[in-house]
UniProtKB/TrEMBL annotation:
Pfam family name, one: Trns_repr_metal
Top-level taxon of origin: Bacteria
Cross-referenced PANTHER family: TRANSCRIPTIONAL REPRESSOR FRMR, TRANSCRIPTIONAL REPRESSOR FRMR-RELATED
Signal sequence bounds: none
Organism: Massilia agri
Protein name listed in UniProt: Metal-sensing transcriptional repressor
Entry's family note: Belongs to the FrmR/RcnR family.
Record-linked InterPro entries: Metal_Tscrpt_repr (IPR003735), Metal_Tscrpt_repr_sf (IPR038390)
Length: 103
């Protein structure tokens, strides 16, 4: 993905830099997955499956790290943008619910 492929929208969910960092990480994962697809297509021997499995595990781990990065960035940004303690608590509860739902 080229840097200009997606327009980064300003908002209060994440900073522009956080979005850029996350998009770069996702682009690398996308490349990893393309590599896995090639490995699957070229797999001819039983030993090739080991390489495919290893790369799938690496891509899965990278995606998990991206999820953590997303939530960490959201916690930082939304805490700073909270109007008061009550607002900060409400935002924290929403992010905790995301963690509970998807982690």
């Amino acid at each position: 993905m080229a840097d200009g492929a997606l327009k980064i929208v300003e908002g209060s969910a994440l900073t522009a830099q956080q979005k850029k960092d996350l998009l770069n990480r996702l682009a690398r994962i996308e490349g990893q997955l393309r590599g896995v697809q090639k490995l699957v297509a070229l797999a001819a021997e039983p030993s090739d499956i080991d390489a495919v499995a290893q790369q799938m595990a690496a891509a899965r781990k990278a995606l998990d790290r991206s999820f953590v990065q997303l939530l960490t960035s959201a916690i930082q940004t939304q805490s700073l943008n909270a109007a008061d303690l009550e607002d900060a608590q409400a935002r924290a509860a929403q992010l905790a619910a995301l963690l509970d739902k998807f982690a």
